Structure formats: C-alpha cells, structure tokens
C-alpha cells in the first residue's frame, strides 16, 4: 500500500515521503481499517517535527484522526466487526495518511450516520475536545458569553457550534475577512478580525464591560494574555493549545484579583483515563450532528499525494476549517 513516511524530524513539506509499504496487521486488541478519510491536524505537524508528546519510532506514518471501514480484527476484539464504519485514533506508527491503518479497538466509535466520511474524520478529536473543554472543564451555561479564538479553524469552529448549541452568546476571533465570513457562517453572534480590531475592546462592548464568562483558547501567546484582561467575574479560561507557537506565562495575580480560573485541557488524558466519558460525549455529539446542530467545517479535500502540501498550509495559517485526506 501507499503511505506517507517520516524518517527524520522536520517541517512536513521537507520530511514526508510517499512510499510503498507492507499492509499493516491488526494484532491483539486492534483492528485494521481501510482509510475512508483522515483529518489533517496540528498534532500531525508536531509529529513530523518530533515535538509531539508521543514520539513513535521512525519511520512512521502521521495522521491521527481517521474514518475507516474495518477490514480485519485482531484477537480479543468483540467490537467493531468487519465492514463497520468507524471513527477513531490511528495506532502509531501506523497513521492515517495511508490507504490502510490500524486502530486500538477500544478507541474506535461508530461513525455518525449523519456525517459523510470527510466530516466524520474531522469530527472525532475537535468535537470531543470542544465538548470536554466547554462542558466538563468550563461548565458553560446557557446565557453566558463564550469567546473563541481561531474561530474559523478546526478546533475553534467546533467550539463555536457547541457554544451555540449550549445557548451561549459566542464571540469569535479570526484572522482576515475570509475567516471572519467562515466564523460568522458557523453561527458566531459577533466576529472579530484580529488583524483590524482589538478583541478585548469588542468583548467589553458586547458584554457592557462585564467580560467573557468562558474563553476557549487553542492559540496561546497574545490571545491568552488579551483574554486574561477581559474575563468576567468567576470566568473560566480554557487552555487548549499553542498554535501561535508561544506558550504564555500567566499572571496568577490577575487570576486572584479578578476571580477567574485557568483550566488546562489535554483531551488525550480523557481518552486514556475515562473511556466511558468519551463514549457518553460521542453519543451526545452524534445526537447533535443528527439534528444538524453541529457539522464539521471541512475545508480542503486532499488526495493522498497532496498531504505534505496540505500540512504545510496548516503551518502557514492559510487553511480555513479542517483539511481532510481522501485516498485515491
């Protein structure tokens, strides 16, 4: 089969090689799937650079989020069955940017019937992350104000939709008119173009000076420091990632004086420590998808040969929504 391989760390466009490799075998507790679609995500960039928390032996194939059809099951697998359509995480070093991949059977979940293959691939981590960030960590309530950074990106767009589904007033922050249009189309009540406006001033205006009850920040850097200046009383600032490349150093005196809390969110810990919680979240998210309340923002639809360039566009910040690979 064909698969993208990383033999040494570096920028995706420099180190990814499309090669012929042997078809993977599932092994105990695992399944082999035919890749129907694989979402392109920032963790895949970090994997290529050798900076992700998981460091698979080289060579490896990146591509963490997959929608696939089960081809073979290993020993001790009672579900899923051959032919089932599933979503889940690939089991590195066998990533999803290939024709076939491997999953841990326990990480696989039924693909939502309401979503096609590209949308289903883009659904798993982004919406699980949003659900745990907004509901488990921040306890978002109807009527509250939610500020979402990178609102036109894969992670942020999910948070915008989930915030609206929860009954919040959503302020989205995006970069440039095209992304502003995308965020507005997702349902954000107010959208700030960060290239032209100061989002802290907009939050103050929209909330009559009260501030944001919940901030969802996958960016870090100045997005975090600005958010800290516009938190409501007993607000919750959820740290989701550092797409800006800058890990902020929070002022704990600010958190004390203004009575807001900072919540870290590493979704992977829930995947390891709370599988029942993951399944419950998936059931709720699937129900939201079935009634049209959420729908993944799929941007580029890449062929297998286009993956390296697609990952580089993600690095450059020119992609809107989730790029998804569809094998030829």
UniProtKB/TrEMBL annotation:
Lineage: superkingdom: Bacteria
Listed PROSITE patterns: QOR_ZETA_CRYSTAL
Ranges in a coiled coil: none
Residue intervals of the Enoyl reductase (ER) domain: 11-325
This protein's name: NADPH:quinone oxidoreductase family protein
Species per Swiss-Prot/TrEMBL record: Streptomyces lycii
């Amino acid at each position: 089969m064909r698969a993208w391989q990383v033999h040494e760390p570096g920028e995706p466009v420099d180190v990814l090689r499309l090669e012929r490799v042997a078809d993977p075998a599932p092994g105990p507790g695992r399944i082999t799937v035919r890749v129907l679609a694989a979402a392109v995500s920032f963790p895949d960039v970090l994997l290529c650079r050798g900076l992700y928390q998981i460091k698979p032996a080289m060579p490896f194939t990146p591509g963490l989020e997959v929608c696939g059809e089960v081809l073979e099951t290993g020993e001790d697998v009672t579900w899923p069955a051959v032919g089932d359509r599933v979503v889940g995480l690939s089991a590195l070093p066998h990533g999803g940017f290939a024709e076939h991949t491997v999953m841990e059977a326990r990480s696989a979940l039924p693909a939502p019937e309401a979503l096609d293959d590209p949308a289903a691939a883009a659904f798993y981590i982004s919406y699980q992350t949003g659900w745990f960030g907004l509901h488990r960590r921040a306890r978002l309530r109807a009527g509250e104000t939610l500020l979402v950074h990178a609102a036109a990106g894969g992670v942020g767009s999910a948070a915008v939709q989930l915030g609206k589904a929860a009954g919040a007033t959503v302020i989205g922050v995006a970069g440039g008119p095209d992304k502003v249009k995308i965020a507005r189309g997702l349902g954000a009540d107010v959208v700030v173009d960060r290239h032209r406006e100061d989002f802290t001033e907009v939050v103050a205006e929209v909330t009559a000076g009260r501030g944001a009850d919940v901030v969802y920040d996958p960016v870090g850097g100045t997005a975090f420091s600005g958010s800290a200046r516009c938190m409501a009383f007993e607000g919750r600032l959820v740290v989701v990632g550092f797409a800006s490349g800058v890990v902020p150093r929070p002022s704990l005196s600010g958190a004390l004086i203004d009575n807001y809390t900072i919540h870290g969110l590493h979704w992977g810990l829930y995947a390891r420590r709370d599988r029942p919680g993951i399944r419950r979240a998936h059931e709720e998210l699937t129900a939201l998808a079935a009634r049209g309340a959420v729908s993944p923002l799929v941007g580029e639809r890449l062929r297998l040969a286009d993956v390296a360039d697609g990952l580089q566009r993600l690095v450059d910040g020119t992609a809107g929504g989730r790029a998804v690979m569809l094998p030829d």
